[in-house]
């Protein structure tokens, strides 16, 4: 709840409305609308209901900064908010719950666009992944691609299906079956099915894009076919890098100790290719990460890796730790893969870390291992040495080729 403002309505009704408009609303929802002194919503939503006795207010743009003042203005009025479908599913309801507090809300939902789409397609909703592209880069869909998987993509406007289709085709998913479901629930509802390779034109703004993922097996790079959504372990060749990369097997143990969770913020300090930050953000759609890398060329490479692997919102800071860390948002977890020996880096990370947060440090050199051992002796935690050997050809034979050993320290801030 927003404690800073006391001028807020005691109760706000939030009514979900479908494309069928007023006829599809329950008596309870209709009553909430007709009794309102102030009715808030988009122009499209307001046009779906009869003229109320109260005042109609169209959402301002940009919306979020204006909300506190808007609700303070109508603090003494009976306020009703119109939302699309289920207000708590990628809708305004969740935003209002954070702003006003859930105890002030009466939410009257309609079926969401996802529920309607699954009912039309015969897809079990619990087996269907939802990708929200409203206000987000289209590359976010790449993190959810899985040969044979089913996706429902929520678009921001009528150009979304064409842009998604183009992206899928570029990444070897051209044969994917795409169904554009327009104006779900309305009398003029329409469906169209084609492939990603064939779909290019724009569609109605009010739509859901269904994707049944299929791949071009002959031309698709091996790492693109690897099933990784929700689990760490992208192959090393999935990343563009100059050798500064947390290798796949070490990365898996690193992620296990960082323990990503929805909404958590990670600092990836000395990020190199950004592989740990990318894996963190792929763990859940709401995971966030900041990659800190002093080299501008590497920082640009991190951004390219993030976009290509489906997490384009990864924040990249080009700067040197610890100076570059001082003004960043407080993290829930920190990974230090480079710069361990720089003065005050570990101290700055531990001080910034939220209580209960995790710090994981990977050390390769004797100097960095000495620093990590000293911190372990003072704070405890878990200290392990990781040795990886891979089979490789030697002449006409095969032998084990060892990689450099990594000393890994993980600790929880008390």
Characterise the protein shown here:
It is built from twelve helices and 19 strands. It has helices spanning 27-34, 43-46, 67-73, 92-100, 113-121, 160-170, 222-225, 248-258, 275-282, 296-308, 345-352, 366-379; strands at residues 12-17, 38-41, 55-58, 79-84, 105-108, 129-132, 150-154, 177-182, 190-195, 207-212, 265-269, 288-293, 315-318, 333-336, 358-363, 382-386, 389-394, 397-402, 406-412. The strands form four sheets. Strands 13-12-11-14-15-19-16 form a seven-stranded mixed beta sheet, sandwiched between helices. It is globular, with a radius of gyration of 25 Å. The chain starts with 11 loop residues before the first strand and ends with a strand.
Global mean pLDDT: 92
Give me the CATH architecture of the largest domain, please: 3-Layer(aba) Sandwich
The CATH superfamily of the largest domain is known as Vaccinia Virus protein VP39
Would you give the CATH topology of the largest domain?
Answer: Rossmann fold
Helix/strand layout:
Blueprint: E1 12-17, H1 27-34, E2 38-41, H2 43-46, E3 55-58, H3 67-73, E4 79-84, H4 92-100, E5 105-108, H5 113-121, E6 129-132, E7 150-154, H6 160-170, E8 177-182, E9 190-195, E10 207-212, H7 222-225, H8 248-258, E11 265-269, H9 275-282, E12 288-293, H10 296-308, E13 315-318, E14 333-336, H11 345-352, E15 358-363, H12 366-379, E16 382-386, E17 389-394, E18 397-402, E19 406-412
Describe the structure concisely:
The chain contains twelve helices and 19 strands.
